[in-house]
């Protein structure tokens, strides 16, 4: 579609992606309003990173969704899938109209990601704490094939409470998987409240470092930082997996949704939709 | 019927075939969870080190990363004990292997009470109930080392996820090695007209011994090996039930939700006949030597004989 691969300077790329992320947020809010069901908070907090991946960083062919050389993306925090659905539709993997069918009967857009139903989805996810393992397996496959593709896995800061995440973390560094990049959407909120109140995990950075990963800390809403970190991480040949810990705000971009646990899994009503679209510049 | 004492457990025969198959099919890989010298998956690893991944003592990650590796079509064989696969890694198998219907094959050792000596934590006595309930999953259980070799090929040739239940100890050789095995197939190892005994895995031998013992009392028992548990040979069971008019299922598993329940539901709908099923009766077993444990928990030859005779009495009073 309007993806412009010819943009050159960093400033231009950042400006382009900032505007794209705004459009992605609009689609997130609209589709969750249309289905009257879904998870806006965690989709909005991840919107800048996922937009940067789909509109700049990842090598993809929308006309050939399972192109063998494509970069892979696994959304481990599967409930935030509206952000991926928006990006896939806007990149032309399927028609934009499909976004209005989110969670509906016989839709290609299931409540949680289904790789067999949605063109462009690399992996089925939804049960928390498992995506890093699956990304690990895809990265092992890439290594085995000698392929140059990278595997990006988006984790929530809540789901790293699952023990399996650390089984995968140990395994990835033991196998020197430099083609595996984890992004932690550190929005500080989980379903029942702030992560520090539910089950504090102390320093995410130190944990991944202790497991043998290279770690970068960024502001997950500063597109320049996001872009530079992703570019650094995807870099050339390296022997360690990379974890980007992104400080974010749940519900980012819609003021009345920000940092409120209630917006983890609630759909806006028509008045709230109107306000959200105004804030996001939907009429522009 | 004199059966030869086996030299090899099914886990070993299956793994040996896996190693041979590594030369036939150069694409599939094997995942292990640190019991490669028990599942014998190390045989494959020694021969094909670049295609063998020991994932450590982390079965959940083993299963989920196998899903990732299989997501673009590669076949992955995941090895560990049935008790861990069927419960600890269950959600990964269900949601990320069965749901997307990926080509992941499970080598599940220590099926039923063949792990008797290891105690309850290592005895997979609910795995058939759990795995056969998952959509897209196929479940096989070979009865001897010849069958185990054939069933490895069958698992590889059957699209989607397949769980193969294997045994810890050498038992008896039932097959010659020339038989063919197919998904949804069964073998009739002894023909009879009075009662059908259906079994699989290690208990098949007990069923054959029971049939021998029943023959001495003038009862002709038909013995079916239901090595393909899902799908099972529904037509074969039906034909035999119509012929004999009584069906007894004996399995090394909980009675509840095992093959017995599956066949009971099928017969109730299509051919109601006097029926009974043997297995663990809503109980855990214990450590001990295999023959005494299966005797105590009611799945040995002697229980099969006595329950078959009771079933025949019911049949005669109809």
From the structure above, extract its key features:
heterodimer; A: 284 residues; Rossmann fold; five-stranded parallel beta sheet; globular; B: alpha/beta; 2 domains; seven-stranded mixed beta sheet; 13 helices
Question: How is the secondary structure organized here?
Answer:
The complex is a heterodimer of chains A (284) and B (318).
Chain A: H1 10-35, H2 40-45, H3 47-57, E1 72-75, H4 82-90, H5 131-145, E2 151-156, H6 164-174, E3 180-186, E4 189-190, E5 193-194, H7 195-198, H8 204-210, E6 214-219, H9 223-234, E7 242-247, H10 270-279
Parallel strand pairs in A: 1-2, 2-3, 3-7, 6-7
Antiparallel strand pairs in A: 4-5
Chain B: E1 4-5, H1 10-24, E2 29-32, H2 36-39, H3 42-47, E3 52-54, H4 59-70, E4 76-81, H5 82-88, H6 90-98, E5 104-109, H7 127-132, E6 138-140, H8 145-157, E7 162-165, E8 172-173, E9 187-190, E10 195-199, H9 203-216, E11 221-225, E12 228-230, H10 234-244, E13 247-254, H11 259-270, E14 275-280, H12 290-296, H13 301-317
Parallel strand pairs in B: 2-3, 2-4, 4-5, 5-7, 6-7, 10-11, 10-13, 13-14
Antiparallel strand pairs in B: 1-8, 6-12, 9-11
Structural account:
The complex is a heterodimer of chains A (284) and B (318). With 284 residues, chain A is an alpha/beta fold. Chain A has a single domain (10-279), classed as 3-Layer(aba) Sandwich (Rossmann fold), CATH 3.40.50. Chain A has ten helices and seven strands. Chain A has helices at residues 10-35, 40-45, 47-57, 82-90, 131-145, 164-174, 195-198, 204-210, 223-234, 270-279, and strands spanning 72-75, 151-156, 180-186, 189-190, 193-194, 214-219, 242-247. Chain A has a five-stranded parallel β-sheet with strand order 1-2-3-7-6, with helices on both faces. In chain B, 42% of the residues lie in helices and 19% in strands. Chain B has helices at residues 10-24, 36-39, 42-47, 59-70, 82-88, 90-98, 127-132, 145-157, 203-216, 234-244, 259-270, 290-296, 301-317, and strands at residues 4-5, 29-32, 52-54, 76-81, 104-109, 138-140, 162-165, 172-173, 187-190, 195-199, 221-225, 228-230, 247-254, 275-280. In chain B, helix 1 packs across helix 8 (145-157) and helix 10 crosses helix 11. The radius of gyration of chain B is 19 Å and the shape is globular.
